[in-house]
Amino acid sequence: MRLIASDLDGTIVGHDGKISARTVDAFAAARAAGVGIVFVTGRPPRWLDPLVDQLGHEGLVICSNGAVVYDLGQRRVLDRTTIAADDVYAARERIEQAFPDARFALESLAGFVVEPGFLDIESIELRELAPQWIADVLPRRARVTDGVEEEIPDDESVVKFLAKHPTLTPDDFLGHVRGLVSDLVAVTHSSPGVALVEMAPQGIDKAVTLARYAERHGIDAGDVYAFGDMPNDRQMLRWAGHGYAMASGHPEAREAAANLAPPFDEDGVAQVIEGVLASGHDADPPSPAAPSPEPQDPARA
After folding, report:
1. In the chain, N or C: fewer CB atoms in 10 Å?
2. Burial class (CB in 10 A: 0-12, 13-18, 19+), 32
3. What band does 46 get if pLDDT is binned at 50, 70 and 90?
4. What is the pLDDT of residues 147-171, one digit of tens each?
């Protein structure tokens, strides 16, 4: 075990935003044993406070389902891959034609832009997040002035496009949207209780960016222990030599992984880490500090 790659919500972070003391201790023990740690999440960089406040993590975080690489210690974006504006418009048009009740939002490095009706503050799942989401909402900006199209600033380019439906189940909506726009964007979801589909740049997911990180640090997939619980973790769990889906997780995650960790409520990730550390298979010594990842050449919206 040279690297632990863990999802956050439903894997080590509960609905209350807390990480258990046992899990905190397990990650501390792994770090002390020389194991590298990277977190891989659908969250944007601004929602990483639990990692700092509870785990004291100051390393790398792969955010927005692989579209953003973020240095938490320096609070700095190292890399991003954005969705072309034409693909956003085309995806929205197709989804809206099939589902007129759908509502949309855009995630950029500058913040979160929603259209009216996207934030349902009456929803139990969103009630706790609504104040934070509302605080991050950016005003819509005109992109055409006097007939001249303005260039979108780089930090406002889209790294995640979201669609929400008021009545469908999360899995039903995901299945429909995959069929509509998979030729334009990568489609997944990570919310167990809301029909909220997350769209990333084509060819980008957690596994792609994690694999690049591991290669850059000379770590083989066989030495990676990955943990996740939702469809947006599938590719990462398949890629890692030791992919663990939470027993409490989504069926798509469980089917993708070769191994099951005990449920979230039983500190499943901590149990696996503790078992590996206690097995007598010493972790490799820490690798020398690697330079920041070289900027890629992503398509920018």
Report:
1. C
2. exposed
3. confident
4. 454 455 555 678 999 999 999 999 9
Return the exposure string of 228-260: e unless at least 16 CB atoms fall within 10 Å of the residue's CB, then b.
bbbbbbbbbbebbebbbbbebbbebbbebbeeb
Which of residues 287 and 82 earns the better pLDDT score? 82
The number of beta carbons lying within 10 Å of the beta carbon of residue 19 is 21
Alpha carbons 45 and 23: distance in angstroms, whole number: 22
Pairwise CA distance, residues 257 & 250, whole Å: 11
Reported in sequence order, the residue ranges of the chain that DSSP labels E, i.e. its strands, are: 3-6, 36-40, 60-63, 68-71, 76-80, 103-108, 111-114, 144-145, 148-149, 158-165, 185-188, 195-201, 224-228, 242-246, 259-261
Distance from chain centroid for Cα 245:
15
**What are 225's strand-pairing partners?**
4, 242
